[in-house]
Amino acid sequence: MEPFSDRFLEILNQKNFDDRLKALVDLVKKMSESDSVCVYVYEEEHKQLRLMMSTGPAPADSSKIKIDEIKSDLSKPFEYKDRLAIPIKSNEQLVGLVTIEMNKKLEEAQSAQIAELLKISLELEKKAATIAKLSAIEELDDELSTIPMNIDELYKKVLDFAVKVLNAERGTIWLLGNKELILSYVSGVSEDEIIKRRIEMGYGMVGWIALNKAPLLSTASKVDPRATLDIFSFPVKSTVGVPIIRDNTLIGVMMLMNRKNTDFYRTYRHFDEFDLSLLNSIINRLRMNLNQMELYVKIEKENESLKEFQKQSEDYINYQKEQVRLLNVLQKILQSLRHAQDIKNIYKMVLIGLTSNAGFKFNRALLLEKDESSRVLIAKEWLGPSSEKDVPSAWANAKFNEEKYADFAQYLYEEAMQIDISGGLTIRAKGKYFSYTGDYIFDRVINRSKIVHVTPALVAQRGEEFAELLSLLDVKEFVCIPLIGRREIYGAIVLDNKYTNVPISDDMIDILGIFSESVGLTIESLKSYAELVEKTVNLEKQRSSAEYFKDFLQNVLENLDVAIMVVDRENKILEWNRKSSELFGFEHSKMIGSSINILGPEFADLMNVAERVYDTKEVINLTDYDFKFRGKELFINAIFSPLREQDVDIIIGYIAMFEDVTRRHTLEIELRNRDRLAILGEMSAKIAHEIRNPLSAIGGFTQRAKKATTDEKVSKYLDIILGETKRLEEMVNETLEFSRHEQHGDFTMTSINELVQDVVTLYTEKFDLQGVKIEFEKSNEDLRVMIEQNHFKEVIINLVQNAFEAIVGQGAIKVKTYSDDVNVYVDVWNSGDPIPPDKLEKIFQPFYTTKTYGTGLGLAICRKIVEDEHYGKISVTSGQEGTTFTVQIPKDIQSKGGKS
Amino acid sequence: MKKESKKILVVEDEEPVRMLIQEELEDEGYEVKTVKNGKEALEYLSSNDADLVTLDIEMPDMNGLEVAGKIREMKKPVKILILTAYSHYRSDMSSWAADDYIVKSSDMSGMKKKVRELLEV
């Protein structure tokens, strides 16, 4: 036989209790050489020996041997049912029993070995069961630690686990509630087995555990009367129960009932102290878990509230972000508005800003403009998709356009320029108008500058009062905001989310409040600016046109060939034009603001006439008024018009207009004379012709008669006839000379000095004899002009002869030639008596003569030659210093028309 | 001293003047023929010659200037002296068909001088 230690190890190395027992049986078989071997284990609790393993034929009905049934001494082998029974003892303690065939035997040492081996096997089995339970608890720990459960699951799981690990048939958990214990969880207990679900403290074992807060172990062998109480209908053989206590407070009781058989062999079949301690540790774990769970719940709760808090702050941040975004959008809208030129673009920008995705995101925005006169709001523009089916494309388009711009203001500005919103919704709104007096919504919006948020509730309650707007909008929620300026409300905007049905938040309403005022103000300032620009332009226009007219009037006034003065009621001169200065000789600067009296007494008569306009209130006309002024005689036409205050029939002064018609007046007189002369000329020619013929005949025949007579007396008479005839003929000649007006002579370039010298030379001697000195003051310049020599010479002769004739007695004649830029002059002066002014003006008239003899045609002919033929001028001045005739001939006769 | 008799045609509508001129010229020794108007003058000249014609300007039907023109058209070597009551024709005379002109006067010496000058040439 191999050494014992080897067998010992061999047995211990066996996997389980059975194998170990088999190995033990085999060892006994070998030791005793008995074919049949039975091994019994002593069960102290039951005072019996239980057959655990056998080999070979075993005696029947010998699975248990009650100790008290064995009559023999157990300290040595004895005969039992025809077999040799050998008690197995370790340290005098009975461990088990081995039976072998009667004729076989086992040494004492051998039985001691067997006893140790059996004892160790039993202990190993016991330890294995303990280890299994402990590892099961580990399992529980694992399970409980991994999955966070709710409390029901925890109780259930712990209960099930306890039942399984402790091999209980049934398990219950009673929880304390309102001073009674309530059956809360069961394992292996069917409903119909439960008699009582609620028990009071102290009732039965559960009640005892709860009341005493102490564990309780009870077996069928020590029947506790409390176990038999009518709680369950099944028989209770053994129980193990523990209170569930947390923080010294009883929560409930766990109670396991009736231990089942297990794989492990144990000598005691009911719940034991180990089970109780196991259950305690399970309950500890439950408690720990409950704590954990509570903590977890707390943490969860904390977490939840943290999450809630986080969510709240996130919401708040998002809300803030959205507010900030909307404020930015608002700022961008205002920024874009600043670039707008006209009000229509402003409206467009506002509407785009309100509906755009990057803006206020409203589905639709309707702009209503206020019409003050009829006290209505008129629908102007409505932006948004016109129907549900237009939504995707409209928003896609808008988004596409929007994303092209980095700057929202830029987008608004350019989009407003391009977009045409006159179609779609605008067509639907066109022509719609809403009174804002008494209207539920618009009265608040326009008259009270309120934002009105219309909710479905309000629609249900008062919808009928704004049915018209509702039917146009066809929504249950919308908001209406006024466009508030400093001076007035410019209109309103109606916003809704027809397609997305997103509710309009109070925060949005708040932002819209800012929008309402700031956009209103911007619109106002733009409108004011536009008005200001227009006013400025108008003012500029007015001013420039006023200035233009002023300049124009001034210019006209200054350039008018009419003297104009404006005089007020106080006789103060308000206006005095250039011609006035020219005519009357007073400077403009001196006259404006001066009294009219500055003009002197010569004006008194005229002013008296002028002032009559205050009474007559009508225009006064003076024609060819003979006005003696500063020694000159002027002929003026005067018009005095009343000066009226604008739009009022008050005369605040008069306008005096003076036209110097002196020249025209003289020309008219001349012309009148000329006409007379022309007629006279014609007549003279005819008469002369008619007279000349008979005169020729008279004179001719008288001459013949004189030749034919010798009678002195007849001859003397005939001489008289002849003399008179001659006088008549001379007169006829002069008359004819005057009237030969159609004739132009030969114009040649002639030296005036030479011509005058010839005439002077011709008369010098003749005049000298009669006491009249003739002198020629010749111009140093050789004055050569185109003249009709003979005619011009006739003029000079005529003037010289006239000069001679004007002198009575002794005297002097001076002829002078000189020139200026334009004319050549010949003065013929005589020292004779002055010619009275009334005669002076008639001196050039035909047939006017002061002489006894003379036709009176001489000077008329002179003027005819000088003025008509040579386009010159002949004039006369007369005074104490003598009389001067001045002939003026233009140097360039061509420029004056020349000869034809 | 008797001059060689030159033939003068006097055209004058006024009888006394015509008579005066005729007598004055005949006194000078000229052969004088008188007619009353231009028509008669032209008729006469168409079949007769004359050395000189005196023409009054102011005549009924045809004035002296016209008559002068017609006479010139006859291409006859005849002198023409215009006698006029107007004095203002003188400067325009160059354009006339006449050889000279003289303003009528009671003093006939001027006329006779002109006639003499014209016929001497």
From TrEMBL, chain A:
GO biological-process terms attached to the record: regulation of DNA-templated transcription
Uppermost EC category: transferase
Alphabetical list of Gene3D superfamilies matching this protein: 1.10.287.130, 3.30.450.40, Histidine kinase-like ATPase, C-terminal domain, PAS domain
SUPFAM superfamilies from the UniProt entry: ATPase domain of HSP90 chaperone/DNA topoisomerase II/histidine kinase, GAF domain-like, Homodimeric domain of signal transducing histidine kinase, PYP-like sensor domain (PAS domain)
Key words of the record: ATP-binding, Kinase, Nucleotide-binding, Phosphoprotein, Transferase, Two-component regulatory system
GO MF term set: ATP binding; phosphorelay sensor kinase activity
Histidine kinase domain mapped to chain residues: 686-893
Location of the PAS domain: 549-602
A Pfam family: HisKA
Catalytic activity: ATP + protein L-histidine = ADP + protein N-phospho-L-histidine
Domain of life the protein comes from: Bacteria
Matching PROSITE patterns: HIS_KIN, PAS
UniProt name for this protein: histidine kinase
Organism this protein belongs to: Mesoaciditoga lauensis
TrEMBL record, chain B:
Residue span(s) of domain Response regulatory: 7-119
GO BP, sorted A to Z: phosphorelay signal transduction system
SMART domains associated with the record: REC (SM00448)
Keyword line: DNA-binding, Phosphoprotein, Transcription, Transcription regulation, Two-component regulatory system
GO molecular function per UniProt: DNA binding
4-aspartylphosphate: modified positions: D56
Alphabetical list of SUPFAM superfamilies matching this protein: CheY-like
Stored Pfam families: Response_reg
InterPro entries attached to this UniProt entry: Bact_response_regulator, CheY-like_superfamily, Sig_transdc_resp-reg_receiver
Name of the protein: Response regulator
Organism: Mesoaciditoga lauensis
